[in-house]
Amino acid sequence: MLFKRAIFMTGQPVVLFLSRHKVVPRFREARFKCRVGGEPLEPGMRYCYPVFGDELSLEKALVQVPVALCIGYEREKGDLETGIREIGEEIKYVLRPHLEQASFDMEYAAKEFVREDGWVSGAIMVANERFVKEFPR
Description:
alpha/beta
């Protein structure tokens, strides 16, 4: 938490690297509750701790700091039906409502990988206006 906050407080461009499992709500890794104040811990609940606060709110950081999110993903084991591009589009669909007020470019970058052994993966990158201005495509 403190390391992430310090990175954002520099005002320098930031790229956060995440996996699909941290973003898409149907995955366990994306389900958590923010713990603030002295509220008691609930058994079995996964908690996160806020990165942003009074000195820099999340809303302000998403607009004022050059920020990009790079999200990696792969097809789930046994899933031969879902195309790799569909997975990238699903991630953008999940992110769009949260990032549209900060004017994120949802099409900033994308790359898909297919190896000879059939392993398929990809990554998308979405970026706010300040990031795009500093690092045009």
